[in-house]
Design a protein that fits this description.
Rossmann fold; 18 helices; 945 residues; 6-stranded mixed beta sheet; TIM Barrel; Glyco_hydro_3_N; carbohydrate binding; Trefoil (Acidic Fibroblast Growth Factor, subunit A); Glyco_hydro_3_C_sf; 5 domains; Galactose-bd-like_sf; globular; 20% helix
Length: 945
Amino acid sequence: MTVHSPTTPPFRDPHLPVAKRLDDLLARLTPDEKVSFLHQFAPAVERLGIAAFRTGQEALHGVAWMGPATVFPQAVGLGATWNPDLVRRVGEAVSREVRAMHARDERVGLNVWSPTVNLLRHPLWGRNEEGYSEDPKLTSAIATAYTHGLRGDHPTYWRTAPVLKHWLAHNNETDRATSSASVRPRVLHEYDLQAFRETVEAGAVAGVMPAYNLVNGRPNHVSPYLRSQLRTWTEEDLLVCSDAGAPSNLVDAEHYFDTHEEATAAALLAGVDSFTDHGTDATQITARVKGALEQGLLTEADIETAVRRQLSVRFRLGEFDPHYDPHRGTGEFDTPAHRALAQEAAEQAVVLLKNDDDLLPLAPDTRVAVVGLLADECKLDWYSGSLLHRSTPLEGLYERFGAERVEFAEGVDRIRLRTAAGAFLHVPPTDAPDAARGTEGALDPALLSGRTDLPPLTTDATGTEFALVDWGEGVLTLRAPDGRYLSVAEDGHVRASADQPGGWVVQETFRLEPHQNGHLLRHLGTGRPVSVAADGVKVADAGEIFEVITVERGEEAVARAAEQADVVLVIAGNDPHINGRETEDRTTLDLPAHQQRLLRAARAANPRTALVLTSAYPYALEAPSRLPAVLWTAHGGQAAGTALARVLAGDISPAGRLPQTWYESDADLPDLLDYDVIGGRQTYLYFEGTPLFPFGHGLSYASFGYADLSVRVQDGTVHVGCTLTNTGDRTADEVAQLYTRAVDPSVTRPRRELLAHRRVTLAPGERTELRFEVPLSAFEFWDVAQGGWRLEQGPYDLLLGASSEDIRLRTTVTLDGQAPAPRSVVRRGLEAADFDEQSGIAIVDRTKTAGDAVTPVDGGSAELVYRACDFADGVIEVTAQLAGEGVLELSLDGGPTLAALPLPTLTADAYTYTTLAAGIVTEGVHDVHLRLRGPLRLAHVGFTG
């Protein structure tokens, strides 16, 4: 029996079960203290010795926003490694740095909002860089590894507490706070929920963050799936943290609730435990919670449930057991091991897409021209930390080949801007210190722009020659000769003051707009044109008309460098803060026109030209067949340049694999807001066209042989084995990928689907035996006819190879399961959203708390098809639950209308349903067709015999 000190409360006793400690602590908190804990910035409770706590520390690929830290490759780059062991080690390093930084500065939180497990369904999504893959199996494998690294391996105490983002079906920035993803049940269960589920079930997740958008007409912050799905996957108390500002959006942007008290209560009851709103000001959230209590919308028990979940995480983080917490003394920060790991991760993320005539690797005596807008850049993104170390492709190649063998041309257009009066824009000299640089040259993102200690631009007779980069769609940056970007501060003046474009609202982007006999230079951050005033150049309501004088075209410098080289490397891609980022989706897959011109100029001057893409997302390429070699890597963090140079030189063989499909053109893409991956034939799972580069693709400098495929089914598991041999002449990694395909399914199934993968290193001639154990549940699909998972009996192809299209071994196995059966509609009826096919339908919320209904898009007409409906011995009546206004028509097998159910008068609101009935006489098995005409909501159809 534990004996307590009279001065030590039970919640401080590490020998007691956590549940009892939570009970004790909750009993000691006052109602007001409990309410105060619901805001992101929970205050200290000094009388109990409880410190302040905040949810939320960004750590997507290193500690973000809190100053210098080790910067690893972007998440999509970590996904491209296909290496869970590596990603786990990255997670460990990141969590150790979180702890080390927290020890110095308690503003660095231990509840980390990472990783992002939203699937990369659509490559134009602005946040593509934040996800791992378009495939739920690969995404969950990488996310599980990262969360295990973040959590640590102590059985009791967590190093950090990971929260997954963003629940649920979130793939658009356009109208992200008001748009609704229409997600049919099969897509919901087989695709969007799957990555979350497998990661949560792996046991290293502290919670989730709901997304800004709505799903099926209902905001994610009141998602019923938090209760019906998420909380059933684990016995841990999961913490649900709102996204920033989203609680207010429920009223202000989405108009889903009339009052903030009603909205706050609904979110808390749905499962939100921590409200991120109004920054550090907790007063508005606490007032709303108290108002909801006074109105009877919440009870103190509801408050206590949410607070308990938050405190549960704090107990796991060791906050109340400082003498037992094994992570408290962690001081591992910017260690040699972390630097080496950043380089290893960057190396493993490089994907060799094409290598004709063995252009790569480069011989040691190769004369290399390195050209392009990203050749001497090490770009950061919104969720990067500040760089302690920096390596660009140019620097890496200088280091590897020697500066004398490397020729550089950035390829920017060099211009001067002349006013109507004949003067030129001029950057005045300054003696101001480089305030944006701190320890060891690290960039402080808070000082990248907005400086007012530098003089604004002026005009003079000769002016300044600016480097102009057009990033596509007319969005450009202008850079002064000293490397500073033109930026606009709060006072409206234009200064050469930023090291890089950045910030939540980028202040370094402009657009040249034809106007009269010249151009207006419009600043995109403010939307105002640039004007010349007596106190310096600034943005104003009326802008100066500039003549653009081109001093040199970028392609001219590129051609000069390319002509003298043995091999040309065109380093192209994106700036992660421009044209595709959080708040902004891309509009095209195309490489920006400026970079296409540079590529054409290099290729015309030297056919031995390789394209090296450094980007946060896929591109479509103009005439890729004319390029002998193409590589891709995500922005690779602090060691990107060194890693790329080592791959190009053949010091290591590339083994990254594409985590998403690269399409040939925009025509291959669905609408950004079409979330139906099945009906829209999206991702490699369903896409029926020819991709530019397929999912899982990646070449090597070695070659590998696959042989001896074996398969057996035993104890609920499919055991697959093969022999893998390095048949090349150098040590290299291979990523073996196992896929399946249902041969004769009763419903649409993926054309192939990843079951498992393995990244292995083999020396020349080395052979290894690969073994995969796949549970039979991996072959199941969500059967809308039964409302659950079903393994369908029949043959399944097993496909093993180097990508989703490069299959080396195959066999077919017959699995026992359930035979297809018609829907028993007399017993169960038809839930409206459980259709097999649809045209013109949007899924919407049946009520504000639960359930789905369907309605025609924009109130027009739509059709639903339900296959193989069994009317048994006969029915005589059809009933339908309807709201709104319009007509529901029923037919069988595409024949004439058998019943019409009109709702001529608009119901009281969209959630007031009326049950209508009509006579119908039929029996046997038929396909049911339902046509909806007008702004009608259909929830359920029933049949009686």
